Amino acid sequence: MCNTVAFGVPAFLAFFARMLNRGWVLKKYHLEDWLMCIVICCYSCLLVLVNVSAHYQTNLYPMEDEARILSDPAEIQDRILGSKIVVALEQCMLLVTWGVKICVWTFLLRLHRNLPRFETALWLQFAYFWTGLFVIEIMYFSVLCNPFSQYWAVPVTNPECATYHKYSVVQMVFNISSDVGLILTPLPMVWVAQLPLKRKLILTFIFGLASFTVMAALMNKYYNFASPLTTVYQLWYIREASISLVVSNLICTWQLLQKIFHFRSFSNTRFSITDDGTINHNPGLRHKFMRFAHRARHSVSGLPGLGVSNQGNAGGNEGNDTFFTDDTELEERKSRWDDRRRDTQFSVERDGDDAGPAILYRSMHNIA
Question: What is the SS3 assignment for the chain?
Answer without folding.
Answer: CHHHHHHHHHHHHHHHHHHHHHHHHHCCCCHHHHHHHHHHHHHHHHHHHHHHHCCCCCCCCCHHHHHHHHCCHHHHHHHHHHHHHHHHHHHHHHHHHHHHHHHHHHHHHHHCCCCHHHHHHHHHHHHHHHHHHHHHHHHHHHHCCCCHHHHHCCCCCCCHHHHCHHHHHHHHHHHHHHHHHHHHCHHHHHHHCCCCHHHHHHHHHHHHCCHHHHHHHHHHHHHHHHCCCCCHHHHHHHHHHHHHHHHHHHCCCHHHHHHHHCCCCCCCCCCCCCCCCCCCCCCCHHHHHHHHHHHHHHHHCCCCCCCECCCCCECCCCCCCCECCCCHHHHHHHHHHHHHHHHHCCCCEECCEECHHHHHHHHHCCCC
